[in-house]
Amino acid sequence: DAGVTQSPTHLIKTRGQQVTLRCSPKSGHDTVSWYQQALGQGPQFIFQYYEEEERQRGNFPDRFSGHQFPNYSSELNVNALLLGDSALYLCASSLLGSRGTYEQYFGPGTRLTVT
Amino acid sequence: KNEVEQSPQNLTAQEGEFITINCSYSVGISALHWLQQHPGGGIVSLFMLSSGKKKHGRLIATINIQEKHSSLHITASHPRDSAVYICAVIPMGAQKLVFGQGTRLTINP
Asked: How far is it, in rounded angstroms, from Cα A55 to Cα A48?
């Protein structure tokens, strides 16, 4: 059983460009959350997708958008890249429990460098 | 002030020592995670708990909901335990994790 997978593992982009990161959830999971982790900081919640809808969103600008596909995989898109977008982007999947509490399983992350 | 505070931020110990990492939070929660992150970035969930105590091998996690405090203990520490340990909470009514800043643990042989 494959865990959460993310692609690519590393990416270098130039300011102003656009990037798409991909995540495949753990088998059986229906919810995908995206987090941004700047160097030396804890991860920050970007947004969460469930049933192909954005369920909740953190304090990130509209340049950050996402999508969830019918097979529960997800994409994170970032437009008009800034130097400050350089970070490790983590995807986590979970199965939304009846009480709304759930354990999240993390992917290995995509390290994005913006030059 | 962050909603989730960890202490200490950095901890260096000798192999075999008993390790305690603390986490305090300021919001009502439905659950709390302890996570481990190795260099290179991958995060592994160690525990999710909403009350009491959980044990897995040499790792023990406790939580006191009334005091809004959790601790992660490592017994008989080993150099392979060296990593960043992160406390993250699920705020009541939310569907996201709110993370502490992490504790960098180094265990010397």
From this structure: 6
The mean pLDDT value for B11-26 works out to 97
Cβ-Cβ contacts under 8 Å, B94 against chain A: 56
Given CB atoms, is B92 within the 8 Å cutoff of chain A? no
- pLDDT at residue A58, as a whole number: 92
Q: How far is the alpha carbon of B28 from chain A, nearest alpha carbon, in Å? A: 13
Nearest Cβ partner for A101 among B40, B43, B90: B90
How far is A108 from B98, CA to CA, in rounded Å? 19
Concatenating the DSSP letter of every residue in chain B gives --SEEEE-SEEEEETT--EEEEEEE-S-EEEEEEEEE-TT--EEEEEEESSEEEEETTEEEEEETTTTEEEEEESS--GGG-EEEEEEEEETT--S-EE---EEEEEE-
Which comes out higher in pLDDT, residue A17 or A3?
A17
Residue A37 with chain B: CB contacts under 8 Å:
41
Tell me what the mean pLDDT of segment B54-72 comes to.
Answer: 96
Optimal mutation site among B43, B49, B98, interface A, most CBs of chain A within 10 A: B43
For residues A87-91, average pLDDT: 96
